[in-house]
Amino acid sequence: MIPLITQTPRLIILAASRALLTAELHKPQYFPVLLGAAMPADWPPGEYDREAMHYFLEQLTAGGRDSAGWFGWYALRKATDATPRTLIGTGGFMGPPDAEGTAEIGYSISADWRRQGLATELVSGLVQQAAATGMVRQLVAHTETENLGSQQVLLRNDFVLAGPAADARLRFERAVAPAADPALGAGGA
Fold it and tell me: Start and end of every N-acetyltransferase domain (predicted)?
């Protein structure tokens, strides 16, 4: 089973569920209550829009438990003395890996939370999540040619520019090594 939560130093990254997506789409007043987090003023951020929410909900509904963790994820900034736990962005996979073990990621951070390294941390968490599944061998991501910030996020997470994609965006790739099995101990098998 795929873990449905991962953490980085400043983030809790939570897999979208049908309940969360349904609330986000149809009962937005309950969405922050279910997340246990404050909402940013500009939600939803970037390319994460109602179409993406509907797509993730449809995929989770069609795929049942097997699809959990392979679509949207919410990035929650951990509470500090100065701020409550806050939803700061979203990211995730465009679906399970293909037969070769390739999966695509995407991410977006709310405007108020940009330029703080949180997108880099979110992508790092998604890479960790992909490795933890043991199913992903390569991650790909696409970004607009003028989005230098997004390109830097990918480069900081060991993605390399693979060239232009068919849709004129840039394609980045990164190999993923499976996470070590903690049951095997530090020495491996």
Answer: 33-187
